[in-house]
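During the no-cost extension, the postdoctoral fellow (Dr. R.K.) reprocessed legacy sequence entries with the updated structure-token encoder. One reprocessed record is reproduced below for audit purposes.
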Amino acid sequence: MFNDFLQLLYPKLCFACEDPLFESEEFICTYCRISLARVDYTQNSPWWLRAKFDGLFVYQEVQTFFIFASGGRVQHLMHAIKYKGAEDLGEYLGLWAGQSLKKSHFFHEVDCIIPIPLHPQRLRERAYNQAECIGNGLAKGLQIPILPQALQKFSQTNSLIGQDRSHRFEILKDSFEVLADVRGRHVLIVDDTLTTGATLLAAAEKIKAAGAKEVSFFTLAALK
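Re-encoded structure tokens follow.
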């Protein structure tokens, strides 16, 4: 009874549209679950995703879950995960994505998941790594182990907004270090949002150089 009273005073809101949630709903309302822009897993990964990596790096697979649009509901979700402390939302969406990918037989040959790390100073400021939250959920959905400390970002970089892919890659290419044994393994690199692909490429180069057999990519959302 008391919880019902609190829900009336402080209703839980959908992270995507900010409408009040029903008691049976969690994080996202039913309408948003149905209508959020998603990638069709009955087909191969979209050409516009592959175009971000083709000819630049030899990878096995690339996928995303949501299609990002500025000002849209997917952006609201990503903003909440990245800047508003919504760690549970990140894991919830990662689990949803992982379960969907597993049903469609994507990443079934992957040996481990490695999230893109934050620089230690940024991690202290934020208190969590959004890519790791998503990766934790994804790992549960795909039933694949996650290695959250396998990759370290030891070089702090300023905001890369407005930089093109080549400039981003030049800044990021020597900022990662592999701390785990990835020799002979198929590694799935996970991040929150894919824009140019420079961050994933920089991390992939280091992981492949450390002896990984194959590298694949997944982000929760991607910009066309």
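Residues 5-9 have pLDDT under 50 and may be disordered. The first strand starts at residue 62 and ends at 68. The remaining legacy entries will be reprocessed before the final report is submitted.
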